[in-house]
Every structure is written in structure tokens, then in C-alpha cells.
Design goal:
alpha+beta, HIT family, subunit A, five-stranded antiparallel β-sheet, 2 helices, 5 strands, binds guanosine-5'-monophosphate
Length: 113
């Protein structure tokens, strides 16, 4: 059996996280190493390695994730923010459980590195 990812351990409450939203399908919690004044991660509870692994059968879940991102950003009082999903190691992905970063609370430059 493969080792659980950190995010699966957070879902299963095996390690703590500052959770700010949860429903049957999605979880949102503060990033442990924030890169902006607000840095939150939104993840599906379903184990999907990355955006590249999303299937057509996940379309409802994909929609739920986007709505959750929007609601969580509103909950955090963000008007302007950036949403990022690093897909693959060379794009910066370090945890292989699909997640979306919400970054806000400061000016964000473009393009990212
Ligand atoms: P990635 O590099 O895969 O796009 O993003 C993974 C993110 O997960 C990083 O921003 C990293 O700081 C965050 N992270 C890694 N381990 C933990 C943890 O144990 N708890 C929390 N809350 N965030 C984590």
C-alpha cells in the first residue's frame, strides 16, 4: 500500500491543520508555509494526484471545487486573489493530492517564476 499524502492525513485528522471550510466533498485549510498574508489550500476529499488525473466523471467535483474556492475567498474577505494549481514536479507540485492555492492580501506580480 502506498503511503498516505500529507493532505490525506489532514482529511483523516491524523495531522492537524487550520481548517476553515469542510463539506462532504471538499476541505479548505491554511497553508503551513504561507507565501502571502492569506494562503489557503482547497482540496477534494477524493484522492486525485493532480489536475492531470481528473476524469470526465469528476466534472461535478471539479465544479464543487471551483465554487468552494469562490466561497472560501469570500469568507476570507478577499476581493482580489490568485488561484494556482501546480501540476507536476517541474511546475512546483510537492504534494501529490490535487489542491488549489488561494493567495491574497498583497499585490501579486505576473508572470510567476
Ligand atoms: P504544492 O507545492 O504541491 O503546489 O503545494 C503544497 C503546499 O502544501 C505547499 O504550499 C506547502 O506549504 C503546503 N503544505 C505542505 N505540508 C503541509 C502541512 O502539513 N500542512 C499544511 N497546512 N500545508 C502543508
Amino acid at each position: 500500500m502506498t503511503e498516505k499524502t500529507i493532505f490525506k492525513k489532514i482529511i483523516d485528522r491524523q495531522i492537524p491543520a487550520e481548517i476553515i471550510f469542510e463539506d462532504q466533498h471538499c476541505l479548505a485549510f491554511h497553508d503551513v508555509s504561507p507565501q502571502a498574508p492569506v494562503h489557503v489550500l482547497v482540496i477534494p476529499k477524493k484522492e486525485i494526484r493532480s489536475l492531470a488525473e481528473l476524469q470526465g466523471s469528476d466534472s461535478e467535483l471539479a465544479g464543487r471545487l471551483l465554487i468552494t474556492i469562490s466561497k472560501v475567498a469570500e469568507q476570507l474577505g478577499l476581493n482580489d486573489y490568485r488561484v494556482i494549481s501546480n501540476c507536476g514536479e517541474s511546475a512546483g507540485q510537492s504534494v501529490f493530492h490535487l489542491h488549489f492555492h488561494i493567495l491574497g492580501g498583497r499585490d501579486l506580480s505576473w508572470p510567476p517564476g
